[in-house]
Every structure is written in structure tokens, then in C-alpha cells.
Design brief:
The chain is about 45% helix and about 15% strand. By secondary structure, the protein is of the alpha/beta class. A 7-stranded mixed sheet has the order 4-10-9-8-7-5-6, sandwiched between helices. A 4-stranded antiparallel sheet has the order 11-12-15-14. Strands 1-13 form a two-stranded parallel ribbon. Bound molecules: pyridoxal-5'-phosphate. The site of pyridoxal-5'-phosphate has 14 residues, from helix 6.
Length: about 425
């Protein structure tokens, strides 16, 4: 009994020093590095409280007021609040806040309306699409007949005429709009017109831009799409997780597809944290944040271009800057490694028509959601761009790496993170 009580009340540090120390090391990494991974962010401490809560003890299969377990009176209120907030934030008829991840949210949307062997038209992975948009090793590539659209080789932006042409030829059941590495605005009305013309259903995956949509600085795909899927952990600045919005006519199918179709019980700590995330994203301060994310990306982009770096599509409209490193004679893989050593976290990324393999690449994806959450503005983006330029010009020079790393740690220290943790 004594052991049980002590174990139940002990801190992680006391009970599992190894894991506790690694979490502390990760906190210190987040504080000292400049985080430019476009799909990452820093959540408010309140979000971590929901995630770390005793809600993890509860099972709640099913939907509010139709749960398969007893004792759900509080957790179903949490879920209802999350649903209502998501609907209000994006202007949707219906929301399902249970999907554990973006890939599962996509799976749920597809399974709601598609059968194995049906056709899907989605963006090529090597032009900016996501694995769950038809990669051969993903369930989408294994289950559906995939036709892929890409970007125009000249403009490096989505070629809507090509989308329309491919849609007419392949007559897909579903057209997917949305991407993981696309720095430009997406024209959802145009996608919907193509979908309507060929009798397809439009699924928009707004995982990357959900925060920009919530903040009113990117068009909202909801009025144009039958389904909208999203993660909550990117620009939306919420917990790792996802949700799906849909038109009223698909609500029943969607809910049945999420549970019992592809998931069992929802992760209630994440559902609570999603509710808080939707609340915060609906506040006026979030609009300021979202517009600063874009201003920071534009500033970072302009300064890197000034330094002679080529930016895919010639600029950015959102939070992403996609660099073509070929003129610097360095691969994405080597650049990611050198920048990491210099205290700047990024990820290698294929650029359209990339001659390098996916694990090497000629590109680097940068994004501003996380640095903006830390309070950085255009001035700091200029310092970061200088640092990136220096490292890319001398990736093998240990002195350069060391001095940039010290500068970046100093910059990080000027924007304190999680002081109360
Ligand atoms: N959709 C898009 C456009 C993404 O960029 C991602 C993740 O990067 C996902 C879906 C998948 O999200 P998750 O990693 O939560 O499965």
C-alpha cells in the first residue's frame, strides 16, 4: 500500500529519472535553438496542462450523449465544447474532433466517401503534397487509383488548368487540395469548380495553414469543400492531433468512419487541449499572431533572396519559405545538418523537379510559426537569415558553426520560453 501511494504521488523525476532528464534536455533544446520547422510550433502552457491531465484515465468510445461507457458526463461536455468551438472557428456544419493525427483525419474523410479502387486526384508528394495524398507506400497509394497534379515548371505554382485537365481525364471520386510544402495561396474556389465539373468530392487538407485560416490571413476552405481535414499542432498552435469538418449531409458517415471505422476511444487529454486551442485561435490576439507569421516569412524570404538564394516560386504568401540550394552547391541533407549544429532547426525538403533523392534533396523548408510564437519579428528574421546564409556558405567551417550557434543561443535567450515550467 505504501508503495502504491508513493508511486502514485511521485513526480516523473523521482519515478523515471531517465525519461525526465531527456524531457529536460528537449526543453533546453527548444529554448536554445531557433525553430524553423514549418510544421512545428510552441503551444501555450495551458495546452500542455490539458494534455498532461488525468483525462488520460478515461474511456469514451462513441459521441457525446451516445457513449459506450459510464462516467462520461464531464468528458462529453469537453468534447461538445471542442466540437462547437471548431464549428464556429471555421464556419462548419459539423466537426469531429477525435482523430488522433492528420493522417487518420484524412483516412476518415476518404473512407467516408470512397471505396478501395476509387480514383483520387491529389498533389504530388515531390511537389509539396503529403504522404496521405497518395504515396505508393501509404494506404492511399495502396487502396486508391492515384492521379497526381503538380506545379507548373515555370511558375512553380499549382497549375489549375492541369488540375482541371487531369480531373476530366481521370474522373476521380475525390480531389484533394492542400499541401505540406507549398508556399503559395491555394485557390479553393477554383478547386471546387473543377470538382463540381467532374462530379468529385473536394477534400481540403488545411493542416499546414489552419492557423492562418483561423487568423483570417488565408482564405477559408470550409465554404468550398465537402470535407476539411486538419492537424491542430502546426500553425493552429494546439496539441498534436487532428479534426475533420464536413457538410451536414456527410456528418453521419464521417462520425461512423472515425469511430468505429478507424479508431477506438478518443484521446481525451488531446480533445480537451484541442478545445482550448480552438478558443485561443478565435481570440483577436490570434489574428495578430497569424498576420505576424506571414510578415516574418516574407521578411525571412526577402532577406534570403537578397543574399542570392533562390526561393521556390519566387516568394511566399504563407508561413513557408522553400529554398533551392543548388546554387550553393549543398544538398538539403547537408544543409539541415550544418544548420542544426549552428542552432537552427529546419528540414530538408524536395523541391519541384528535384534531381536528388528524397532522403537527400536539393531543398530546405523553413517556416515561421514557432519563432513567431516566441515573439520574434521581422528584425529577428533578418538576423536568422544572415545566420542561415553564413552557414550555407561555410557548412564545413567549424568556427562559423560555433559562432553562429552562440549567436542563435543568445537570440533564443532574448525570447524566453516556458519560464514557468
Ligand atoms: N496533412 C498534411 C498537409 C501534413 O502536412 C501532415 C503532416 O505533416 C499531415 C497531413 C499528417 O499529420 P500527422 O503527422 O499528424 O499524421
Amino acid at each position: 500500500m505504501a508503495y502504491f501511494n508513493e508511486m502514485m504521488e511521485a513526480s516523473l523525476e523521482h519515478l523515471d529519472a531517465e525519461i525526465s532528464a531527456l524531457i529536460s534536455s528537449e526543453l533546453s533544446r527548444q529554448r536554445t535553438h531557433i525553430e524553423l520547422i514549418a510544421s512545428e510550433n510552441f503551444v501555450p502552457r495551458a495546452i500542455t496542462e490539458g494534455l498532461g491531465s488525468i483525462l488520460t484515465n478515461k474511456y469514451a468510445e462513441g459521441y457525446p450523449h451516445k457513449k459506450y461507457y459510464g462516467g462520461c458526463e464531464f468528458v462529453e461536455q469537453i468534447e461538445e465544447i471542442a466540437i462547437e468551438r471548431a464549428k464556429k472557428l471555421f464556419g462548419a456544419d459539423h466537426a469531429n474532433v477525435q482523430p488522433h493525427s492528420g493522417s487518420t483525419a484524412n483516412q476518415a474523410a476518404y473512407f467516408s466517401v470512397m471505396k478501395p479502387g476509387d480514383g483520387m486526384l491529389a498533389m504530388r508528394l515531390d511537389h509539396g503534397g503529403h504522404l496521405s495524398h497518395g504515396h505508393p507506400l501509404n494506404f492511399t497509394g495502396l487502396m486508391y487509383k492515384i492521379t497526381a497534379y503538380g506545379v507548373n515548371p515555370e511558375t512553380e505554382t499549382i497549375d489549375y488548368d492541369e488540375v482541371a485537365h487531369l480531373a476530366r481525364e481521370s474522373r476521380p471520386k475525390v480531389i484533394v487540395a492542400g499541401a505540406s510544402a507549398y508556399p503559395r495561396r491555394i485557390d479553393f474556389a477554383r478547386f471546387r469548380a473543377v470538382a463540381d465539373e467532374v462530379g468529385a468530392i473536394l477534400v481540403t487538407d488545411m493542416a499546414h495553414i489552419a492557423g492562418l485560416v483561423a487568423g483570417g490571413v488565408h482564405d477559408n476552405p470550409t465554404p468550398h469543400s465537402q470535407f476539411v481535414t486538419s492537424t491542430t499542432h502546426k500553425t493552429l498552435r494546439g496539441p498534436r492531433g487532428a479534426f475533420v469538418l464536413c457538410n451536414a449531409e456527410y456528418a453521419r458517415d464521417l462520425d461512423r468512419t472515425v469511430f468505429p471505422g478507424v479508431q477506438g476511444g478518443p484521446l481525451l487529454p488531446a480533445v480537451a487541449a484541442k478545445a482550448t486551442c480552438f478558443k485561443l485561435a478565435g481570440e483577436p490576439e490570434f489574428k495578430v499572431y497569424a498576420s505576424q507569421v506571414i510578415k516574418n516569412a516574407s521578411a525571412l524570404c526577402a532577406k534570403l533572396q537578397e543574399k542570392g538564394l533562390r526561393v521556390v516560386s519566387g516568394g511566399t504568401d504563407n508561413h513557408i519559405v522553400l529554398l533551392d540550394l543548388r546554387s550553393r552547391k549543398i544538398t538539403g541533407k547537408a544543409a539541415e545538418k550544418a544548420l542544426e549544429a549552428a542552432g537552427i532547426t529546419t528540414n530538408k525538403n524536395a523541391i519541384p523537379f528535384d534531381p536528388e533523392k528524397p532522403m537527400v534533396t536539393s531543398g530546405l523548408r523553413l517556416g515561421t510559426p514557432a519563432v513567431t510564437s516566441r515573439g520574434m519579428k521581422e528584425e529577428e528574421m533578418s538576423l536568422v537569415a544572415d545566420a542561415i546564409d553564413e552557414v550555407l556558405s561555410a557548412a564545413e567551417d567549424e568556427n562559423v558553426i560555433r559562432t553562429v550557434r552562440a549567436r542563435m543561443a543568445e537570440l533564443g535567450a532574448a525570447f524566453p520560453l516556458y519560464e514557468s515550467i
